[in-house]
Write a structure and sequence with these properties.
This protein has helices at 16-29, 53-63, 82-95, 109-112, 122-140, 176-185, 196-204, 225-235, 243-248, 252-259, 264-268, 277-290, 304-319, and strands spanning 4-9, 33-36, 68-71, 100-104, 145-148, 153-157, 168-172, 188-191, 213-220, 272-273, 294-299. It has a single domain (4-319), classed as TIM Barrel. Helix 1 (16-29) crosses helix 2. The chain is α/β, with parallel strands linked by helices. Helix content is 44%, strand content 17%. The strands form two sheets. An eight-stranded parallel beta barrel has the order 1-2-3-4-7-8-9-11, surrounded by seven helices. Strands 5-6 form a two-stranded antiparallel sheet. The chain is built from 13 helices and eleven strands.
Length: 320
């Protein structure tokens, strides 16, 4: 099985202009794809950013030529109606013909509570997501559409700007049942742990055998291990928080309070840190061994250029 290597565009940490610049730099470095996070809030105040992803995608479309790009991930069920996501994704796909895919998930309270709507339990959010995906695929077929569902409705809605081929939909999952669900509605899987059971459950469900599986690995490259520990602890202590907590907390302040329980050494057990290329290659291989065919790397902190140079020199040539 071959493996594609990608780059994570962290909207929580970087401005819109920087995200466009980093996408271009990732393409130059040799990454074949990227995923960009879709947030209303950052996880922590120190991260300091959260630009509107659909505006940023327009900039990236003009600044790049080859790299594939997807949202990692969009929640099309509460903050934004799926009919609007269908239009936005179709526009992005028409600007990046054959290079754009839509990553979707059931979301986090952090981003979706902002419209003062009730935060539903996960089984309800999965029902909503399945209906949202059905509605978006209907709109991408073109023509005038009416739809009356359990959670969403559209009346005389038509997406006029359509790509030649509708974008693929990749679905995020972190647990076995979620992976089965992802396989039943999606064209691919997105996850953040090298869990072979997730891949097996995903591929076993409804024709998922040939569908791509994307795995995110979070790292912090720096010249020294101790420096990387401190940077990661400042910018991304949330990596050590339990998954259920990540979906339930509502504000950056709540995440900051929870993150006080995370130590630099404890965080080091969760992430790949420091200057040793073998640790990065081993982390990538752990996803490959679990069945993932796409692995994308999230470099924590401000020093993205140092990370790109490191990957150009130490990582991508060895993988190729």
């Amino acid at each position: 099985m071959s493996i594609e290597i990608g780059y994570a565009l962290s909207s929580e940490e970087h401005s819109a202009r920087d995200l466009v610049r980093y996408a271009k730099r990732a393409e130059e470095t040799g990454f074949s794809f990227a995923l960009i996070s879709d947030h209303y809030h950052p996880w922590l105040e120190v991260q300091g950013q959260s630009p509107f992803v659909w505006s940023v995608l327009g900039g990236i479309a003009q600044a790049t030529e080859r790299i594939s790009l997807g949202t990692g991930v969009t929640c099309p069920i509460l903050r934004i109606h799926p009919a609007i996501i269908a239009q936005a994704a179709a526009t992005a796909a028409s600007m990046m013909e054959g290079r754009f895919f839509l990553g979707v998930g059931t979301g986090e309270n952090l981003n979706e509570h902002v419209l003062a709507r009730h935060w539903p339990p996960v089984h309800i959010r999965q029902e909503m997501l399945a209906e949202a995906v059905k509605l978006m695929r209907m709109l991408w077929r073109g023509g005038m559409n009416n739809y009356e569902g359990k959670y969403f409705s559209v009346e005389q809605a038509q997406v006029f700007t359509l790509p030649k081929q509708p974008p693929s939909i990749m679905v995020a999952a972190a647990a076995s049942r979620s992976a089965e669900f992802a396989g039943s509605i999606g064209d691919g899987l997105i996850s953040t742990a090298p869990n072979d059971n997730l891949v097996k459950k995903f591929r076993a469900s409804d024709g998922g055998t040939e569908k791509p599986c994307f795995g995110q690995i979070t790292v912090c490259w720096a010249h020294r291990l101790e420096e990387a520990k401190q940077i990661a602890h400042k910018w991304w202590p949330v990596a050590a928080l339990p998954g259920k907590l990540m979906s339930r907390l509502a504000t950056p302040a709540e995440f900051e309070e929870a993150a006080t329980l995370v130590s630099p050494d404890g965080l080091a057990e969760q992430l790949v840190l420091g200057p040793d290329p073998e640790a990065y290659l081993a982390g990538i291989e752990s996803y490959h061994a679990a069945g993932f065919d796409h692995v994308y790397i999230h470099q924590v902190g401000p020093d993205q250029e140092g990370f790109f140079k490191f990957c150009e020199r130490e990582i991508i040539p060895k993988l190729h």
